Protein: Glycine cleavage system H protein
Organism: Apiotrichum porosum
Amino acid sequence: MYALRAIARPATAALRAPRMAPRFAAMRFLSTRYTEEHEWVTFDPATKVGTIGITDYAQKALGDVVFVELPAEGTEVEAGESIGAVESVKAASDIYAPVSGTVEAINELLGDQPGLLNKSPTQDGWLAKIKLSDEAQFNVLLNEAEYKTLCEGQ
C-alpha cells in the first residue's frame, strides 16, 4: 500500500490568514439637485465643489450637440447667470449657473467631443466644477422627485 508522508509544518499554518494593515475607506455622500432650466448639480460637502451639467431631458430636447461653450477656470459666477452655451443641430441654449461660486474646472473633452452631452449627460458629459460660495443655494434646488414632476408636466 501507499504510505502518506508526514507534513513537516503544523496544520495550523495553512489556516493562518495573512496579516494586513486595516484600511479605512472615506465615504463621500454626494447629492444631486436640479434646476427648472434642466441643469443638475452634484455637490460634495467635503470639498464644497459642485459638478454641473445638463440633464438627460435637456439633451434629448436639444438633439445632437455639435458645440459647447464653457466658462474659463477661475471665473466668478452668480446663480442664474449665463456661463456658456450648448449648440445642437436643432437649437442653441444658454447654460445657467445653478449656484454661485468660482469655476474650478471645466470638462475640456467637450471641446473635441461635444456629443458626450448626448451619450452621457450626467457622467462623462459634465460641464464645469464650481466651488460654491453659498451652500444654501444648493439646498433650495429641486430634488429628484420634484424634478421628475417638473418634466412630466412639460
